[in-house]
């Protein structure tokens, strides 16, 4: 049963690729990540990507119409898109597109004060969507200052509010973890540099897709016309690498590391 976005306000409910070519996107991500695609109720420009029949992401051919850059973007649930847009502007950030009306709700694109782009969604949230299930998708913000970013998003998205179902925000060492019912739904890391020549070092939301074999996924990406955009990184939980798709749009794949 679908719920309203207000019931999971503040949580990421989907990630979406803005592109100019649906067919090319389906070919690339189908080959690299094994996704299959179906039509979306949002309209002819949209597709839903599924892994093992479970929806994991959206693809939207909106670049020509809206004039937005090609990018992967997380969308956060909000109770009222107009109120959220006003909060963003009041805090010195930008609402770039929308809110725009679709068949099942309203969406908008914004950029925080450091320029990291994110979306927000007011409307129907189906049972297959985040944050109520584990899945192969995570979102992480690379921010200049993790504490300042957490304050901004907390005020804009109602994180850590005193209400049932509100998200919990914890400061752990040098990063911020956002949880919904004890499940991590987002993370904020410090250290991004706004004027860095490498786009990967600038403030931005990263979309991570879990894969069983990191090296095999990277090889498939190169064969499908993409590229490996940086070195493989390793942490306690996973190995990860940023890839560029056929259009140069970055995304990250991760492979879980077994702990002793």
TrEMBL record:
InterPro entries according to UniProt: Anthracycline_SecMetBiosynth, Glyas_Bleomycin-R_OHBP_Dase, Glyoxalase_6, Glyoxy/Ble-like_N, VOC_core
Domain VOC: residue ranges: 11-123, 135-256
Any one Pfam family match given in the protein's UniProt record, by short name: Glyoxalase_6
Protein name: VOC family protein
The organism of origin for this protein: Streptomyces polychromogenes
């Amino acid at each position: 049963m679908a719920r309203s976005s207000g019931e999971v306000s503040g949580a990421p409910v989907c990630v979406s690729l803005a592109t100019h070519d649906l067919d090319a996107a389906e070919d690339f991500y189908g080959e690299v990540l094994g996704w299959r695609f179906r039509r979306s109720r949002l309209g002819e420009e949209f597709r839903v990507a599924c892994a093992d029949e479970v929806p994991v992401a959206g693809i939207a051919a909106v670049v020509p119409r809206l004039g937005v850059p090609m990018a992967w973007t997380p969308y956060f649930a909000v109770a009222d898109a107009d109120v959220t847009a006003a909060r963003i502007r009041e805090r010195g950030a930008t609402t770039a597109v929308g809110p725009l009306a679709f068949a099942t709700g309203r969406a908008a694109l914004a950029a925080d004060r450091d320029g990291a782009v994110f979306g927000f969604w007011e409307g129907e949230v189906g049972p297959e969507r985040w944050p109520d299930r584990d899945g192969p998708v995570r979102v992480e913000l690379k921010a200049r200052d993790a504490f300042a970013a957490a304050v901004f998003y907390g005020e804009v998205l109602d994180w850590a509010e005193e209400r049932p179902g509100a998200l919990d925000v914890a400061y752990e060492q040098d990063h911020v973890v956002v949880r919904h019912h004890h499940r991590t739904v987002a993370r904020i890391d410090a250290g991004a540099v706004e004027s860095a020549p490498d786009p990967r070092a600038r403030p931005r939301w990263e979309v991570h897709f879990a894969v069983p074999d990191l090296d095999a996924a990277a090889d498939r990406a190169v064969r499908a016309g993409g590229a490996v955009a940086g070195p493989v990184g390793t942490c306690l939980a996973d190995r990860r690498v940023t890839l560029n798709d056929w259009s140069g749009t970055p995304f990250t794949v991760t492979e879980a590391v077994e702990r002793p």
